[in-house]
Amino acid sequence: MAARVAVEPSGVEFDVADGETVFEAARRCGVRWPTVCGGVGSCRTCFMVVVCGSQFCSAIDDWEAEGLADLATVAVARSGTAGPAAAGPVRLACQTRIRGPVTVRKPGVR
Ligand code: FES
Q: Could you report the per-residue pLDDT of 60-79, keeping only the tens digit for each?
C-alpha cells in the first residue's frame, strides 16, 4: 500500500509505493529531487529533514548512516553548527522507504 509524502516548502506531494524509496517515487512521479549520484547513496545531496512521521520511515542501515555522518561532519566544518540535523531527523531520500504519511523539508524539490 502506498504512503503519501508531503514536501515543504514547495507543497509537492506524491505517493511512495511499497519497497520504493522517496527518491525513486519522486522520479517516477516526475518530481525533481536534488541529486548528483542519481540515487545510489553516495552524494548525500538528496538529504531531507523529516518534519513529521519519522516513525513511518525505514530504519537507517549502515550505508545511510555513513552518509549521514559525513553530512554532519561537513555541516560542522562549514558552519560550526549541526547543520540540517538541528531542524529534525535527517535522512537520505534515496535510502528512505516509508509506510505511512510523512512530511519532509527539502528545498529544491519541484
Ligand atoms: S541521491 Fe545521492 S545520496 Fe541520495
A: 999 999 999 998 887 777 77
